[in-house]
Amino acid sequence: MGSVLAASTAEEFEAVRRHAISTRNGAGFFTQPIGIWKPPVNSAIKINFDAAWKNHEAGLGVVMRNQNKDFCYGFASKRCCNSALNSETEAAIEALRCAWTILPLLEEIRRLSAGFSDVEWRWIPRGANRVAHVTAAIGLRAVCPQGWANQPPPSLVRVLASDGLPSPP
């Protein structure tokens, strides 16, 4: 079954390659229409992937975006591959691995966000997000989860004060 599927996939790839060759203009260059990325519909996540292959090395790339054209996740790596077809299939495999890794997390974010009347997501430069960054660093060193109500830990007091907030008593 695997060899039949591989042969079918190779035949499909070859048919697409032949079509691309037949679309060359007189100067020997491809004249393909300029494509514009289109977002997915119905709050789906669209996964684009590609591979660049040269001398038995492949660069693999995966990008996920939502219906608002927001970047959700990206991945890049280098692999040894024996052909361009092999590198493209490796990129497809990585795209699916990324989907199985990140999509359940995105679904959980959607589910939890639905409990609020308004949720806004923005990228904030680290300089304006220092408290969250320092808190994440505390989490990285923590042995167990930590939480604070009304009184931040001493390591956050100075960072909070640098944001212009009053220091806790």
Brief overview:
The protein has four helices and three strands; from the N terminus they run H-E-E-E-H-H-H. The protein has 169 residues and is an alpha+beta fold.
Q: Largest beta sheet, briefly? A: 3 strands, antiparallel
- In the CATH scheme, the class of the largest domain would be Alpha Beta
Number of strands: 3
Q: Helical element count?
A: 4
> Which structural category fits the helices and strands?
alpha+beta
Main β-sheet, spatial strand arrangement: 1-2-3
What is the level-2 CATH architecture name of the largest domain? 2-Layer Sandwich
Stretches with pLDDT under 50, minimum 5 residues? 1-6
Shape: elongated
| Overall helicity | 40-55%
GO molecular function, one term: RNA-DNA hybrid ribonuclease activity
InterPro entries: RNase_H-like, RNase_H-like_dom_plant, RNaseH-like_sf, RNaseH_domain
Organism: Prunus dulcis (Almond)
Protein name: RNase H type-1 domain-containing protein
